[in-house]
Design goal:
This protein is mainly alpha-helical and 94 residues long. The chain has a single domain, classed as Winged helix-like DNA-binding domain superfamily/Winged helix DNA-binding domain (Arc Repressor Mutant, subunit A, Orthogonal Bundle). Helices cover 50% and strands 6% of the residues. A two-stranded antiparallel ribbon has the order 1-2. Helix 3 packs across helix 4. The longest helix has 15 residues. The N and C termini lie far apart (29 Å).
């Protein structure tokens, strides 16, 4: 069970990352810090984070397209470290 979500300060202050994506990045990033991957369904993550599923799917597609998230044999993880994510100007739109 998820007790809390920690959002990296650099990611939080990056104006090119929409708020919903920041939450999604934090969720996957927190798993990565514990050497874990997300292997559940998009519907599960959407429900867990309280994000409407159709909007979640659009944001997930953008994060995968920009390789902020990557899919491995183990599941979804971050494609870059949080410093890189925080310092990059992303074209994620709102």
């Amino acid at each position: 069970m998820l007790k809390y979500l920690s959002i990296d300060g650099g990611v939080l202050s990056n104006k090119t990352i929409p708020p919903t994506c920041k939450i999604m990045i934090a969720y996957i990033g927190n798993l990565q810090k514990a050497n874990k991957y997300f292997f559940g369904t998009h519907a599960y993550m959407s429900e867990t984070l309280g994000i409407r599923f159709d909007y979640f799917e659009k944001q997930m597609s953008k994060l995968l397209e920009q390789k902020i998230f990557i899919v491995t044999d183990h599941g979804i993880t971050l494609g870059f470290d949080t410093d890189h994510i925080a310092e990059t100007e992303w074209k994620l739109g709102v």
